[in-house]
Protein 1
Amino acid sequence: MACARCGAQLHDGDRFCGGCGVDIQTASGGHGPPDSPASRALEKCLATLYGRFEDVYRNPEGVIVVPAGTTSVFVDTEESAGGRVAVSVRAVVLRELAPRPELFQYVAVNAGRYLVGGLYLYREGQTYDLDIIVRLWHDRATREDLTETVEVARTNALELADRLEPHFGGNRFNPSGESQKKLWNPEALARRTDVADALVARLDTQSAAILGAADHISFMGAYDGRRGDLWEPVYAVTRGGLWVAGRADRERAPVVRQFAHAQIDRDVMHHEQPPYDYFALLTDQTGVVIQVGTVDEAYAILKARNEAA
């Protein structure tokens, strides 16, 4: 059986998808279409969490992800049979735990000992996942309630993982671990040697936080008086800013552009469906769009740019 949202393989007894984190029991409905009450509630949750925590994003299935050290907190919404919207806050403690009587006993004794939420143990194939889950009613929860719940859930999950891992093993889970990669698409970079060389030559001694080959790069608005595109594009982020390079047309020599961090008013990633975009809005209201193949890569560019700035 496969997840209805991301296609990842599921096993009998699974409660959550290991690929996207969605609650399988509600995946057919979940936060629903864009104009549904649950979707509108999720947008409000995102607006609350974005800026309150570092590196908040929505995964390809629309679930909000709050990276937290070696774990992540998932925030999703669903509409109940009575029409009220529930907010689910789930922090992963450990994954792929071997079935052991001592583990089952620990969860049975300690599941309800938390002031906020509780421990839940779910079978995932031949192993088990341990989570902390808190549920809120959206119409009764304030912005502060949501942020405090996420903070408490992630703190408890990290502390509990430190305490339980030496006894029960298992693996920690952070779906944003790929954001630490510095080199993306090395095969494509190797095929674009002259473009990559032209870019690297301009970087001088600045350390690159990230370097990669994009699917497409576009300049939006009035940049150079027109909308432009780069073929065979590559990009980099350094302490000096955001760099892009490519061919203005397929036959010309590579061009290199630098956008200092001070020129970038804000940047976001578009991750609802592929292809995924990193978008930098410049202070002159023009923009730079870097189109890449995975949500991890778009997130890595956003993370590197904000850290370098």
Note: The first helix runs from residue 37 to 49.
Protein 2
Amino acid sequence: MLKINRKRIEIILFAVIAGATMFSLKAENQIQKDEITQQTTATPVSGKVVILDARTWTEKMVELVQMMERQNHR
């Protein structure tokens, strides 16, 4: 039977808690570094309509391929 004294249990618990804390701090810092920020400016636009294409790159490519196929079949 394995017998562990109180001091050894305290050391093991401290090591586990310290390791978990360090891991969570490192993961938090990595998440903050991975965020990409892009500076934008607000310009006054009067009477204009701005349209932003929110499709993904793959959706755009699928539509482009379909359009090219339609043009080739004519």
Note: Residues 6-34 form the longest helix (29 residues).
Protein 3
Amino acid sequence: MSVTGFERDCCKDAILINTRSVRTKDCIHAFLTRDGLEHVMEYRARKNGTNAFRLYSEGVIYLHRRENDMYCSLKDVRALKVRRNLLDVDRFLDMMPFVKLVAFFASKGPDGFFDLTSECFDLLDEGADKIRVLANFAERIFVGLGFASDFESCPSCDRHFESDERLGYNIGMSSPVCRECADEFPVLLPGMRRYLSFVRNMGLREAVGVEIAQESIERVCAYQRRRLEHFGVKI
């Protein structure tokens, strides 16, 4: 990093998650970095041809900031991963839930959120089932934020769950609970609980590779979406 007067240069690992045009020639890019979400201005991008790598690509961005500027300016980029399959028109809507999650949790997400997102995008680019990826991506966000679920006993009353018991959900605790302690019921069926318990200590890639019926993983994903809504993000 170099500092001259009120100006500063730096470089960061980054994943491009959004870009939009401003005025007639410039673009604002939203990058996920290891420090959170970074909005970066690229001047004259539309006239000169953008220097930024393609959407969802990953690499290093070189930035320049002047004091009192709202945005850093993009000076250069070095692409390390270009996820071309995610740019397919048919994949655009599939990516929206993931982009919303990344934008929402970028600055409040768990340690390792950048690497988790990178692995998530790799899996999607490779053609992994988006429902499996979303269900397991969300679960690892919750765990990283300190909201790991207890699948053995109720965290509210400490009663041990029966193996075939249907669980409810306690909004204040952000956790599955027994029926008596639940705000919502039923939420988590026995098969869903067994699956989440089985994959909880796996890495994202390994968890996504675990065989599960499509109907079952769709139920798990619906459960994760409801949990996310209680956090304030609707996907």
Note: The helical segments are 45-48, 92-105, 113-125, 130-144, 190-199, 204-208, 214-231.
